[in-house]
Amino acid sequence: MTIKINELRDNPGARKSRVRVGRGIGSGLGKTAGRGQKGQKSRSGVAVKGFEGGQMPLHMRLPKRGFNNIFAKDYAEVNIGQIQRLIDGKKLDGKKVVDQEALQAAGVARGGKDGVRLLGKGELTAKLSFKVAGASAGAIAAVEKAGGSVEVTAPKKVVDAEAAKKPAKAKAKPQDDDEDEAPAAQESAPPAAEEAGEGE
Protein backbone atom coordinates (compact mmCIF):
# COMPACT_ATOMS: atom_id res chain seq x y z
CA MET A 1 0.00 0.00 0.00
CA THR A 2 1.46 3.31 -1.04
CA ILE A 3 0.83 6.53 0.87
CA LYS A 4 0.59 9.80 -0.97
CA ILE A 5 1.70 13.12 0.49
CA ASN A 6 -1.80 14.53 0.31
CA GLU A 7 -3.08 11.59 2.36
CA LEU A 8 -0.73 12.07 5.32
CA ARG A 9 -2.61 12.89 8.53
CA ASP A 10 -2.47 12.28 12.27
CA ASN A 11 -3.99 9.19 13.85
CA PRO A 12 -7.61 9.58 14.97
CA GLY A 13 -7.67 11.37 18.36
CA ALA A 14 -4.09 12.63 18.13
CA ARG A 15 -5.23 16.24 17.93
CA LYS A 16 -8.15 17.47 19.99
CA SER A 17 -9.82 20.79 19.23
CA ARG A 18 -10.11 23.22 22.13
CA VAL A 19 -13.42 23.80 23.88
CA ARG A 20 -15.20 26.86 22.51
CA VAL A 21 -17.09 28.50 25.37
CA GLY A 22 -19.87 31.07 25.16
CA ARG A 23 -21.48 29.53 22.05
CA GLY A 24 -25.04 29.06 23.32
CA ILE A 25 -26.75 27.11 26.11
CA GLY A 26 -26.91 23.94 24.02
CA SER A 27 -23.16 23.39 24.40
CA GLY A 28 -23.29 23.42 28.21
CA LEU A 29 -20.71 26.19 28.36
CA GLY A 30 -22.75 29.13 27.09
CA LYS A 31 -23.74 32.36 28.84
CA THR A 32 -21.27 32.45 31.80
CA ALA A 33 -18.84 30.10 29.97
CA GLY A 34 -18.04 28.02 33.05
CA ARG A 35 -16.91 31.00 35.12
CA GLY A 36 -19.92 31.10 37.42
CA GLN A 37 -21.81 34.28 38.24
CA LYS A 38 -20.27 37.61 39.24
CA GLY A 39 -17.18 37.98 41.37
CA GLN A 40 -13.60 38.88 40.58
CA LYS A 41 -12.71 35.70 38.72
CA SER A 42 -15.64 35.96 36.35
CA ARG A 43 -14.09 39.10 34.88
CA SER A 44 -11.28 39.27 32.37
CA GLY A 45 -7.75 40.35 33.24
CA VAL A 46 -7.59 38.55 36.61
CA ALA A 47 -4.62 36.38 37.56
CA VAL A 48 -4.94 35.19 41.14
CA LYS A 49 -1.93 32.84 41.37
CA GLY A 50 -2.07 32.00 45.06
CA PHE A 51 -3.48 35.32 46.31
CA GLU A 52 -5.78 34.73 49.28
CA GLY A 53 -7.39 38.14 49.65
CA GLY A 54 -4.63 39.56 51.83
CA GLN A 55 -4.52 36.57 54.19
CA MET A 56 -1.08 34.99 54.61
CA PRO A 57 -0.86 32.60 51.62
CA LEU A 58 -0.45 28.88 52.17
CA HIS A 59 2.97 28.73 50.54
CA MET A 60 4.22 31.28 53.08
CA ARG A 61 2.58 29.60 56.08
CA LEU A 62 4.19 26.22 55.48
CA PRO A 63 7.63 25.59 57.06
CA LYS A 64 10.59 25.56 54.72
CA ARG A 65 13.40 23.01 54.92
CA GLY A 66 16.73 22.74 53.18
CA PHE A 67 18.27 24.92 50.50
CA ASN A 68 20.00 24.70 47.14
CA ASN A 69 23.65 25.61 47.23
CA ILE A 70 24.29 27.66 44.09
CA PHE A 71 28.05 27.22 44.57
CA ALA A 72 27.93 23.41 44.80
CA LYS A 73 30.09 21.45 42.38
CA ASP A 74 28.47 18.98 39.98
CA TYR A 75 30.60 15.83 39.99
CA ALA A 76 29.83 12.56 38.24
CA GLU A 77 30.41 9.98 40.97
CA VAL A 78 32.00 6.68 39.93
CA ASN A 79 32.91 3.80 42.26
CA ILE A 80 36.05 1.72 41.81
CA GLY A 81 33.87 -1.42 41.69
CA GLN A 82 32.16 -0.08 38.54
CA ILE A 83 35.53 0.55 36.93
CA GLN A 84 36.73 -2.98 37.72
CA ARG A 85 33.62 -4.41 36.03
CA LEU A 86 34.32 -2.28 32.96
CA ILE A 87 37.90 -3.57 32.87
CA ASP A 88 36.69 -7.17 33.19
CA GLY A 89 34.12 -6.62 30.42
CA LYS A 90 36.81 -5.02 28.22
CA LYS A 91 34.79 -1.83 27.90
CA LEU A 92 37.63 0.24 29.37
CA ASP A 93 41.29 0.18 28.38
CA GLY A 94 43.34 -0.20 31.57
CA LYS A 95 46.63 0.65 29.85
CA LYS A 96 45.57 4.25 29.18
CA VAL A 97 44.86 7.02 31.67
CA VAL A 98 41.32 6.71 33.04
CA ASP A 99 39.76 10.17 32.85
CA GLN A 100 36.28 11.63 32.34
CA GLU A 101 36.30 11.16 28.56
CA ALA A 102 37.28 7.48 28.87
CA LEU A 103 34.60 6.84 31.50
CA GLN A 104 31.91 8.59 29.46
CA ALA A 105 32.86 6.54 26.40
CA ALA A 106 32.50 3.39 28.55
CA GLY A 107 28.95 4.40 29.57
CA VAL A 108 29.53 5.76 33.07
CA ALA A 109 30.22 9.24 34.48
CA ARG A 110 27.14 10.78 32.95
CA GLY A 111 26.76 14.50 33.52
CA GLY A 112 29.29 15.96 35.90
CA LYS A 113 30.04 19.33 34.38
CA ASP A 114 32.77 19.84 37.01
CA GLY A 115 34.43 16.47 36.38
CA VAL A 116 34.49 12.99 37.91
CA ARG A 117 34.79 12.11 41.58
CA LEU A 118 36.18 8.68 42.38
CA LEU A 119 34.57 6.80 45.29
CA GLY A 120 35.81 3.71 47.11
CA LYS A 121 32.83 1.33 46.98
CA GLY A 122 33.74 -2.11 45.61
CA GLU A 123 37.06 -3.79 44.92
CA LEU A 124 39.78 -2.87 42.46
CA THR A 125 42.44 -5.36 41.36
CA ALA A 126 43.63 -3.76 38.11
CA LYS A 127 46.61 -1.41 38.11
CA LEU A 128 45.18 1.85 36.73
CA SER A 129 46.22 5.46 36.40
CA PHE A 130 43.40 7.92 37.14
CA LYS A 131 43.08 11.59 36.31
CA VAL A 132 39.93 12.90 38.02
CA ALA A 133 38.59 16.10 39.55
CA GLY A 134 38.20 14.54 42.99
CA ALA A 135 38.63 11.30 44.91
CA SER A 136 37.80 10.02 48.38
CA ALA A 137 40.54 8.87 50.73
CA GLY A 138 39.27 5.28 50.53
CA ALA A 139 39.34 5.32 46.73
CA ILE A 140 42.91 6.65 46.63
CA ALA A 141 44.02 4.01 49.13
CA ALA A 142 42.38 1.21 47.10
CA VAL A 143 43.94 2.40 43.82
CA GLU A 144 47.41 2.72 45.35
CA LYS A 145 47.05 -0.71 47.00
CA ALA A 146 46.45 -2.20 43.53
CA GLY A 147 49.62 -0.47 42.30
CA GLY A 148 47.91 2.43 40.50
CA SER A 149 47.93 6.19 40.95
CA VAL A 150 45.38 9.00 41.26
CA GLU A 151 45.93 12.55 39.97
CA VAL A 152 43.41 15.05 41.35
CA THR A 153 42.98 18.06 39.07
CA ALA A 154 40.48 20.11 41.11
CA PRO A 155 42.14 22.90 43.14
CA LYS A 156 42.10 22.49 46.90
CA LYS A 157 40.55 25.06 49.23
CA VAL A 158 43.02 27.71 50.34
CA VAL A 159 41.18 28.93 53.43
CA ASP A 160 44.13 28.53 55.83
CA ALA A 161 46.55 30.35 53.53
CA GLU A 162 44.23 33.35 53.21
CA ALA A 163 43.75 33.46 56.97
CA ALA A 164 47.52 33.41 57.48
CA LYS A 165 47.98 36.40 55.15
CA LYS A 166 45.71 38.61 57.28
CA PRO A 167 47.68 40.71 59.85
CA ALA A 168 47.21 39.72 63.47
CA LYS A 169 45.12 42.10 65.56
CA ALA A 170 47.07 44.43 67.87
CA LYS A 171 47.00 43.25 71.46
CA ALA A 172 45.22 45.48 73.96
CA LYS A 173 47.40 47.32 76.46
CA PRO A 174 47.46 45.83 79.97
CA GLN A 175 45.34 47.53 82.58
CA ASP A 176 48.33 48.16 84.87
CA ASP A 177 49.71 50.84 82.52
CA ASP A 178 46.41 52.72 82.59
CA GLU A 179 46.30 52.61 86.37
CA ASP A 180 49.84 54.00 86.62
CA GLU A 181 49.05 56.88 84.30
CA ALA A 182 45.94 57.95 86.21
CA PRO A 183 47.67 59.03 89.48
CA ALA A 184 50.38 60.84 87.54
CA ALA A 185 47.74 62.92 85.83
CA GLN A 186 46.16 63.75 89.17
CA GLU A 187 49.49 64.86 90.67
CA SER A 188 50.22 67.22 87.81
CA ALA A 189 46.95 69.07 88.30
CA PRO A 190 47.20 71.97 90.83
CA PRO A 191 44.95 71.72 93.90
CA ALA A 192 41.78 73.76 93.83
CA ALA A 193 42.50 75.38 97.19
CA GLU A 194 45.81 76.94 96.02
CA GLU A 195 44.09 78.41 92.97
CA ALA A 196 41.46 79.99 95.18
CA GLY A 197 44.21 81.55 97.47
CA GLU A 198 46.06 83.06 94.57
CA GLY A 199 42.91 84.69 93.33
CA GLU A 200 42.47 86.54 96.67
Compute the separation of the termini in Å: 137 Å
Mean pLDDT: 83
Biggest sheet record = 3 strands, parallel
The number of distinct helices, counting runs of at least 4 residues, comes to 7
Which term fits the overall shape? Answer: elongated
Parts with pLDDT < 50 across at least 5 consecutive residues: none
Sequence of secondary-structure elements: HEHHEEEHEHHH
Strand content bin? 5-15%
Strand order of the largest sheet: 1-2-4
Q: Please identify the structural class as seen in this structure.
A: alpha/beta
> Tally of extended strands?
5
The oligomeric state is: single chain
Q: How big is the Rg?
A: 39 Å
What is the percent of helical residues? 25-40%
Structural overview:
By secondary structure, the chain is an alpha/beta fold. The protein contains 7 helices and 5 strands; from the N terminus they run αβααβββαβααα. A 3-stranded parallel β-sheet has the order 1-2-4. A two-stranded parallel ribbon has the order 3-5. The mean pLDDT is 83.
Q: TL;DR?
A:
This protein has 200 residues and is an alpha/beta fold. 28% of the residues lie in helices and 9% in strands.
